[in-house]
Amino acid sequence: MTTSDAAERHYIPPMPPRIKARKPTPVTQFLGTVRYFKVMARNPLEVWSDVFYREPVANLRFLGRDYLVTHDPAMIRHVFVTNQENYRFSYVRQAVLVPFLRDGLVVAEGETWKRARKALTPVFTPRHVKGFGGVMDQVARERADELAAKAGQTVSMTEEMLALTLDILLACLFSHDADFDAALFSRRINRLMDVSGMPHPFDLVQAPGWVPRVGRTEATRLINEMRAQVGALAAARRKRIATGETVPEDFLTLLLQAGQKEDAPLSDDEIIDNLLTFMAAGHETTARTLTWTFYVLSQTPDALARVLGEVDGVPDDANASALADHMPYTNAVVKEVMRLYPAAAQLSRQAVDADEVGGRQIAPGTEIVTSTWVLHRHESLWDNPDAFEPERFMGARGETIPRHAWLPFGLGPRVCIGASFAMQEILVVMARLLQRFTLSSVGPAPMPIMRITLQPSTPVPMRIEPR
Known about the structure:
Blueprint lengths: L2 H7 L18 H4 L1 H10 L14 E6 L2 E6 L2 H10 L4 E3 L1 H11 L8 H11 L5 H6 L1 H16 L5 E3 H18 L7 H14 L5 H4 L11 H27 L8 H7 L10 H32 L1 H12 L10 H4 L1 H13 L6 E5 L3 E3 L2 E3 L4 E4 L1 H4 L19 H4 L20 H16 L2 E5 L6 E3 L3 E3 L4 E6 L1
Parallel strand pairs: 2-8
Antiparallel strand pairs: 1-2, 3-5, 4-12, 5-8, 6-7, 9-12, 10-11
Helix pairs in contact: 8-9, 8-20, 9-14, 10-12, 12-14, 14-17, 14-20, 15-17, 15-20
C-alpha cells in the first residue's frame, strides 16, 4: 500500500464534535435544557453523545416522555418491519411534514397509506424507472454543457446539484410541460425549505398546533401556492387524457392512471399530495448525496481516479439502468457516502400498544428513535466507522454488512419507493459530469447539519476544471 493509499483509507470526512458521556443519558442532564435547545437549533446531530455510538440500546425519559433509542439491527427490524403496525409516526415528524405533504406516501398511515402504496407501486416498476433514464441523461448532458461555460470558475456545488436534480425531477414528472412554470416552482420549494427546514422548538415539546411558530405563516402560503400550481397542471392533463389527446408517459400521467385497473383511482388531492411528496423526497435528498459525493471525491485523489476510470469506460449510448454494471466502484462510493451522510438522518415511531422488544418492555406512547447518522457509524456494526472506505460495499466484504445496519432509504414496508430511481439518477449525473470535468474544493470543509435532510453547512464551493 502506498502512502497515498494509506492516507485515503484513513480519510475522515467532516463531522460535528461528540459530547463525552459515561452512559446514554438525556442530553439535558449534561447540557441543561436551555443549552439543549440551542444545540438543537444549531445542529441536532450534536446531541448524540459518544456513548450512543457504542451502546446498542438505551431507555430515556426526556421532557416527561419515554424514549427507547435503538441502534440494534434486530430491534430495528422488530419495530420497523415485523411489528410495524403497532408503531405510528412520531408527533414531531408529522408536525414538520404533514402540513406540506398531507396524505402523501411519506406521511400517510393506516389504510390511506396501504391504498396509496398499492396504487403507486406500479409507477416505480423497473420498466418505468429504466424508461426515465433517457430523460435523466438528457438533462444531465444539458447541465454539463452549461457548466462548460463556467470552466475555471468556482460554483456552489449545493446550488448546482439542487438545480440539476430539480430539473431532472420536473422533466420526469411533467415532461417539460409548457403550462408549468418550473422556475417559479423552484423558487417556492427552495424558500419553503429555508423557512421550514427543521422542527420548531414548540414541536419538540408537542405544543398545540394553534401556538404560533416562526415562519409557519409564510410556509403555509408557499404550500398553498405550490399545491395550486401542481393541481392546475394535473387538472389540465386529466382533461387532455379524457379527450383522447396523446400525452407523455411521465409521472403525472402514470399517477392519473394509477389504480384505474382496480377501479380505485387516486383523487385529485391524493395526486397533488404525492406529486409534492416526490418533489420533496426526490429532489433535495438526491442533491445532498451528490454534493457530499463530489466533495468527498475532491478530498480523495485515488478514489477520484478510480471513479474517473470507470466513467470514461461508460459507452456513450449506455442505458442509464445499466450504469451500476459499468461503474461498480462508483456505485460503492455512493453507498459509502450515503452511509456517512444519510439524507434522512433519523427514523422514529411511537408505540400504539404495549410491546416487548429484546427483553425490554415498551409502554404505549413510548417514542422509538433510531438515528441513521449514529447507526451508520456505530462501533459494533462497522470497522473504522468514521472513515471513508468504499471497498466495504464491494465483494466479500460487502456481504458481511449486518442486515438493517445501512438504511439510507429506510426499511420494511415503508422503504423508499423511489430508491432505484434515485440510485440511477445519481450514477447518471456522476457519469455525465465527471466525463467532462474534475471538481476541486476551494472553501472550508462543510460540516453536516441536520434539518429535514442532512445538509452541508456551506455552499460547498468547488472549482470546475475541464478534463
